[in-house]
Amino acid sequence: MLSPKSTEIVRATLPAVGGAIGDITPLFYDRLFADRPELLRDLFNRGNQANGSQRQALAGSIAAFATALVEHPDVRPDAMLDRIAHKHASLGVTAPQYELVRKHLFDAIAEVLGGAVTPEVAAAWDEVYWLMANALIAREARLYERSGVAAGDVLFPGRVVARHRETADVATFVVRPEGMPASALPARPGQYVSVQVELPDGARQIRQYSVSGHPDGAVQFSVKRTGSDPAGEVSSFLHEHVHAGAELRIGVPFGDVVLEDGDERPVVLASAGIGCTPVMGMLAHLAATGSGRRVVVVHADRDEASHAFRSELATLVGKLADAEAHVWYERPADAAWPAERTGYADLSLLDVPAGAVAYLCGPLPFMRAVRAQLLAAGVAAADIHYEVFGPDLWLA
Q1: What keywords appear on the UniProt entry (predicted)?
Q2: Are the C-beta atoms of 338 and 248 separated by less than 8 Å?
Q3: How confident is the model at residue 256 (pLDDT cuts 50, 70, 90)?
Q4: Is residue 297 within 8 Å of residue 325, measured between CB atoms?
Q5: Residue 98: active-site member
Q6: Can you give the pTM of this predicted structure?
Q7: Is 304 a catalytic residue?
Q8: N or C: which terminus of the chain carries fewer CB neighbours within 10 A?
């Protein structure tokens, strides 16, 4: 909770800081990477830096946290903090790095806002920063402890034991890690793993991929090839160079959007495109445990050929006692698959079970539309969970 004096200062200066945050965050990253170029080379996603999405996400999280402190002082934005903490832990972020970030962030704020940053204003925003940073540090420490690893030590050598082609641009990799603590596996349904590869220029870039299955003692993740520019340099490398027998580094599973054991409420699993990967992990878990939950699966894709895990979806739904799948294709070509609807997914056409909990994954416009449809169907906002690939731009 902010001190009363800082609360008033932050409330008064939030419009100015929020209005300038689009200038502050690029300058912050420029300063950070000039000081520590290895962070851009080996830790930060170069694609997200190139397209600006990481900067948008940082700006959104700072503004959202500060706004929450002044408008809802008795309520912590736990959902946002948990999401960031899991992502940080998956990358191996450690407590000392927060001081480095603070230095360059506040230098950027001072440069952009100039004389408006008085000592009192700087002290108030420093309080905001450390409230957020210390909350994340504590969460990340618990995540490391729960996984049985030292802080930041989350990547382990692994060997690819199998590779499967799902579609023309989606491949599934099964990797057996070496030395990973037994407490870290299997991944909880819905979680993701970090994958680090060494690219031709020597950069060791990391990406996160949802766990799409739970083979014994191994990690299964699926990758959609998204091009060879910085945004897709790792997915292209995996598709072109990583086959059975290859070595890469695999991370301990993390992720706050998980299917909770012991929850017997009806569940809605809604995905679009490659967003089906965490859904498949959840469905595989439900089938493996013989769940009797009411399960409604919704998936949207371009067409049958683009739909990864198309046959597995039907197989897993068939194994469940009370499950159904509804598939929308923008341009269907095969009437044999029950894609009874053409165009965009529309849950208003379905009988959404009362008291359902929902998990969403896909492009942001898809998830926003589905969330609105679920709310209209009576699903509580607190029971709608979403996973994103890359920086979370929902707040931004």
Answers
A1: Heme, Iron, Metal-binding, NAD, Oxygen transport, Transport
A2: no
A3: very high
A4: yes
A5: yes
A6: 0.91
A7: no
A8: N
